[in-house]
Design goal:
Layout: H1 2-15, E1 28-37, E2 40-49, E3 59-63, E4 69-74, E5 77-81, E6 84-88, E7 105-110, E8 120-123, E9 126-127, E10 129-132
Parallel strand pairs: 1-10
Antiparallel strand pairs: 1-2, 2-7, 3-6, 3-8, 4-7, 5-6, 8-9
Amino acid sequence: MRILTALALAAALVLGISAPARAMSYSCDVTYDTSVWTGGFVASITVENTGTSTFSPWILQIVFAGNETMSSGWTATWTQTPPSLQAVNPSWAPSIAPGVTSAAIGFVATYTGTYVNPTGITLNGVACTVTYI
């Protein structure tokens, strides 16, 4: 029996036949809750992994339409390269498993002109469905 299994495996390798790959499914929902005042705002964000694959590690990217500038942030490592803002997972929460909602992350920012919600939010490059509150 071992010889037959070995021969079958060798034949599969020679013919380029492989086992079917498991489909990876990445998707996410983001809740983006803001308190806006003239010239500034606070954003509180949660991310839910609605797919079947774990985001690990994770980077949330927020793309702004205007000139928003972050002044401080929490529960993530924040960097800004206008027009986008990036949040990298904290060391104590390196992944977001399927069906799990992240701890709230957030930031304080300033702007000039009229406040406009971000034009897009992605998690590891995957476009998220966003609910603005």
